[in-house]
Amino acid sequence: MKYLADTSVLIHAEREDFDFGLWLSPDDEVFICGATAAEFLAGQPLKDEGKRKRWREFWESLDIPIRPLTNEVCQQAGELIFLARSKGRTVPLGDGLHAAVAELDGLKVLTTDTDHFSDMGITAINPLKQSPRKRAT
Amino acid sequence: MEATLTELQRKTGRVAQAIARRETIRLTRHGETIAEIQPRQRGLSGAEFSARWRNRKRMDKATCDEGIAALKELDRAG
What Cα–Cα distance (Å) separates residue B78 from each residue in A41, A52, A82, A96? Predict the structure, then answer.
Protein backbone atom coordinates (compact mmCIF):
# COMPACT_ATOMS: atom_id res chain seq x y z
CA MET A 1 0.00 0.00 0.00
CA LYS A 2 1.20 3.53 -0.78
CA TYR A 3 0.45 6.23 1.79
CA LEU A 4 0.53 10.02 2.01
CA ALA A 5 1.01 11.10 5.62
CA ASP A 6 -0.44 14.51 6.43
CA THR A 7 0.79 16.96 9.03
CA SER A 8 -1.85 16.09 11.63
CA VAL A 9 -1.03 12.38 11.73
CA LEU A 10 2.69 13.01 12.21
CA ILE A 11 2.19 15.42 15.10
CA HIS A 12 -0.55 13.40 16.82
CA ALA A 13 1.51 10.21 16.38
CA GLU A 14 4.43 11.97 18.06
CA ARG A 15 2.18 13.23 20.86
CA GLU A 16 0.80 9.74 21.51
CA ASP A 17 4.16 8.01 20.91
CA PHE A 18 2.45 5.92 18.24
CA ASP A 19 4.60 3.13 16.80
CA PHE A 20 4.31 3.18 13.00
CA GLY A 21 6.48 0.05 12.99
CA LEU A 22 3.56 -1.92 14.41
CA TRP A 23 1.18 -0.55 11.80
CA LEU A 24 3.02 -0.36 8.49
CA SER A 25 4.01 -3.33 6.38
CA PRO A 26 7.66 -3.43 5.25
CA ASP A 27 6.53 -3.25 1.62
CA ASP A 28 4.38 -0.16 2.09
CA GLU A 29 5.57 3.16 0.68
CA VAL A 30 5.25 6.46 2.52
CA PHE A 31 5.32 10.00 1.16
CA ILE A 32 4.42 13.44 2.35
CA CYS A 33 3.60 16.37 0.04
CA GLY A 34 4.69 19.97 -0.25
CA ALA A 35 1.67 21.11 1.78
CA THR A 36 3.00 19.27 4.84
CA ALA A 37 6.37 20.96 4.48
CA ALA A 38 4.64 24.35 4.38
CA GLU A 39 2.35 23.53 7.32
CA PHE A 40 5.19 22.26 9.48
CA LEU A 41 7.23 25.41 8.99
CA ALA A 42 4.20 27.69 9.38
CA GLY A 43 3.15 25.95 12.61
CA GLN A 44 6.41 26.40 14.50
CA PRO A 45 5.87 27.51 18.11
CA LEU A 46 6.12 31.29 18.23
CA LYS A 47 7.30 32.27 21.68
CA ASP A 48 9.46 29.52 23.11
CA GLU A 49 12.76 29.06 21.32
CA GLY A 50 13.30 25.63 22.91
CA LYS A 51 9.97 24.35 21.63
CA ARG A 52 10.68 25.82 18.20
CA LYS A 53 14.06 24.03 18.14
CA ARG A 54 12.45 20.69 19.10
CA TRP A 55 9.71 21.20 16.48
CA ARG A 56 12.24 21.82 13.73
CA GLU A 57 14.53 18.98 14.80
CA PHE A 58 11.60 16.57 14.81
CA TRP A 59 10.63 17.68 11.30
CA GLU A 60 14.19 17.51 9.94
CA SER A 61 14.83 14.09 11.48
CA LEU A 62 11.94 12.54 9.52
CA ASP A 63 13.22 13.58 6.06
CA ILE A 64 10.40 11.91 4.11
CA PRO A 65 10.29 12.17 0.28
CA ILE A 66 8.01 15.07 -0.72
CA ARG A 67 5.51 14.80 -3.59
CA PRO A 68 5.43 18.15 -5.42
CA LEU A 69 2.47 20.53 -5.69
CA THR A 70 2.21 20.73 -9.47
CA ASN A 71 -0.29 22.83 -11.43
CA GLU A 72 -2.36 19.66 -11.91
CA VAL A 73 -2.40 19.07 -8.14
CA CYS A 74 -3.47 22.66 -7.42
CA GLN A 75 -6.30 22.50 -9.95
CA GLN A 76 -7.51 19.16 -8.63
CA ALA A 77 -7.37 20.54 -5.06
CA GLY A 78 -9.64 23.36 -6.18
CA GLU A 79 -12.11 20.88 -7.67
CA LEU A 80 -12.13 18.75 -4.52
CA ILE A 81 -12.57 21.71 -2.17
CA PHE A 82 -15.41 22.92 -4.38
CA LEU A 83 -16.97 19.44 -4.16
CA ALA A 84 -16.89 19.69 -0.37
CA ARG A 85 -18.37 23.21 -0.51
CA SER A 86 -21.19 21.94 -2.69
CA LYS A 87 -22.07 19.60 0.22
CA GLY A 88 -22.05 22.53 2.65
CA ARG A 89 -18.61 21.60 4.03
CA THR A 90 -15.52 23.77 4.31
CA VAL A 91 -12.12 22.07 4.21
CA PRO A 92 -8.75 23.78 4.63
CA LEU A 93 -6.67 24.39 1.52
CA GLY A 94 -3.89 22.17 2.93
CA ASP A 95 -6.24 19.20 3.14
CA GLY A 96 -7.43 19.88 -0.41
CA LEU A 97 -3.81 19.78 -1.62
CA HIS A 98 -3.15 16.53 0.26
CA ALA A 99 -6.35 15.04 -1.19
CA ALA A 100 -5.38 16.02 -4.74
CA VAL A 101 -1.86 14.54 -4.45
CA ALA A 102 -3.33 11.33 -3.05
CA GLU A 103 -5.93 11.06 -5.79
CA LEU A 104 -3.55 11.81 -8.67
CA ASP A 105 -0.74 9.57 -7.36
CA GLY A 106 -2.94 6.70 -6.15
CA LEU A 107 -1.99 7.12 -2.48
CA LYS A 108 -4.10 6.60 0.64
CA VAL A 109 -4.11 9.53 3.06
CA LEU A 110 -3.00 8.97 6.66
CA THR A 111 -4.58 11.69 8.80
CA THR A 112 -6.39 12.39 12.05
CA ASP A 113 -8.88 14.61 10.14
CA THR A 114 -10.61 11.84 8.17
CA ASP A 115 -13.87 13.83 7.95
CA HIS A 116 -12.22 16.56 5.86
CA PHE A 117 -11.19 13.96 3.30
CA SER A 118 -14.48 12.08 3.20
CA ASP A 119 -16.13 15.44 2.46
CA MET A 120 -13.99 15.49 -0.71
CA GLY A 121 -14.74 11.85 -1.58
CA ILE A 122 -11.21 10.72 -0.66
CA THR A 123 -10.51 7.61 1.41
CA ALA A 124 -8.44 8.45 4.45
CA ILE A 125 -7.23 6.36 7.37
CA ASN A 126 -6.46 7.37 10.93
CA PRO A 127 -3.87 4.78 12.03
CA LEU A 128 -4.03 6.06 15.61
CA LYS A 129 -7.59 4.73 15.82
CA GLN A 130 -6.69 1.30 14.44
CA SER A 131 -5.14 -1.68 16.18
CA PRO A 132 -1.55 -2.53 15.33
CA ARG A 133 -1.75 -4.92 12.40
CA LYS A 134 1.71 -5.57 11.04
CA ARG A 135 5.32 -5.00 11.83
CA ALA A 136 7.64 -3.14 9.48
CA THR A 137 11.12 -4.10 10.60
CA MET B 1 21.22 11.14 -20.84
CA GLU B 2 20.49 13.58 -23.64
CA ALA B 3 18.55 12.61 -26.77
CA THR B 4 17.19 14.55 -29.69
CA LEU B 5 13.60 14.05 -30.77
CA THR B 6 14.88 12.16 -33.82
CA GLU B 7 16.93 9.84 -31.58
CA LEU B 8 13.88 9.27 -29.42
CA GLN B 9 11.99 8.07 -32.50
CA ARG B 10 14.82 5.99 -34.00
CA LYS B 11 16.54 4.65 -30.87
CA THR B 12 13.55 4.13 -28.61
CA GLY B 13 15.11 1.00 -27.06
CA ARG B 14 18.20 2.89 -25.92
CA VAL B 15 16.11 5.63 -24.33
CA ALA B 16 13.82 3.06 -22.72
CA GLN B 17 16.86 1.32 -21.19
CA ALA B 18 18.04 4.61 -19.73
CA ILE B 19 14.57 5.21 -18.26
CA ALA B 20 14.66 1.72 -16.75
CA ARG B 21 18.00 2.65 -15.13
CA ARG B 22 16.13 5.62 -13.56
CA GLU B 23 18.16 8.16 -15.53
CA THR B 24 16.77 11.60 -16.32
CA ILE B 25 16.33 12.01 -20.08
CA ARG B 26 16.77 15.49 -21.55
CA LEU B 27 15.04 15.77 -24.93
CA THR B 28 16.53 18.38 -27.20
CA ARG B 29 15.65 20.05 -30.47
CA HIS B 30 18.18 22.24 -32.31
CA GLY B 31 20.47 22.00 -29.28
CA GLU B 32 17.88 23.28 -26.84
CA THR B 33 16.37 21.17 -24.05
CA ILE B 34 12.62 21.14 -24.62
CA ALA B 35 11.52 18.40 -22.20
CA GLU B 36 12.76 16.12 -19.45
CA ILE B 37 11.66 12.64 -18.48
CA GLN B 38 12.43 12.03 -14.83
CA PRO B 39 12.14 8.85 -12.78
CA ARG B 40 9.15 8.77 -10.47
CA GLN B 41 10.21 9.66 -6.97
CA ARG B 42 10.25 6.74 -4.55
CA GLY B 43 8.80 7.06 -1.07
CA LEU B 44 10.23 5.48 2.05
CA SER B 45 9.39 1.80 2.38
CA GLY B 46 7.39 0.84 5.45
CA ALA B 47 10.58 -0.59 6.95
CA GLU B 48 12.59 2.57 6.18
CA PHE B 49 9.89 4.86 7.51
CA SER B 50 9.52 2.80 10.70
CA ALA B 51 13.26 2.88 11.31
CA ARG B 52 13.36 6.64 10.75
CA TRP B 53 10.37 7.08 13.06
CA ARG B 54 12.11 5.10 15.81
CA ASN B 55 15.20 7.30 15.48
CA ARG B 56 13.40 10.63 15.18
CA LYS B 57 14.21 13.63 17.36
CA ARG B 58 11.43 13.66 19.95
CA MET B 59 9.07 16.50 20.87
CA ASP B 60 7.39 16.83 24.25
CA LYS B 61 3.58 16.94 24.48
CA ALA B 62 3.53 20.69 25.21
CA THR B 63 5.38 21.39 21.96
CA CYS B 64 3.03 19.10 20.04
CA ASP B 65 0.01 20.83 21.57
CA GLU B 66 1.30 24.27 20.66
CA GLY B 67 1.90 23.18 17.08
CA ILE B 68 -1.52 21.54 16.83
CA ALA B 69 -3.15 24.75 18.08
CA ALA B 70 -1.18 26.83 15.58
CA LEU B 71 -2.19 24.59 12.68
CA LYS B 72 -5.85 24.74 13.70
CA GLU B 73 -5.63 28.53 13.79
CA LEU B 74 -4.06 28.54 10.32
CA ASP B 75 -6.86 26.23 9.07
CA ARG B 76 -9.53 28.57 10.43
CA ALA B 77 -7.81 31.59 8.85
CA GLY B 78 -8.06 29.75 5.50
Answer: 16, 23, 14, 12
- pTM of structure: 0.87
Question: Are A136 and B46 within 8 A, CB to CB?
Answer: yes
User: Considering CB atoms only, which of A8, A31, A43 is closest to B43?
Assistant: A31
Contact B57 A54 (CB under 8 A): yes
Kindly give the confidence (pLDDT) of every residue in chain A, 137 residues in length, as a single tens digit, with 9 standing for 90 and above: 999 999 999 999 999 999 999 999 999 999 999 999 999 999 999 989 999 999 999 999 999 999 999 999 999 999 999 999 999 999 999 999 999 999 999 999 999 999 999 999 999 999 999 866 655 55
ipTM for the predicted complex: 0.90
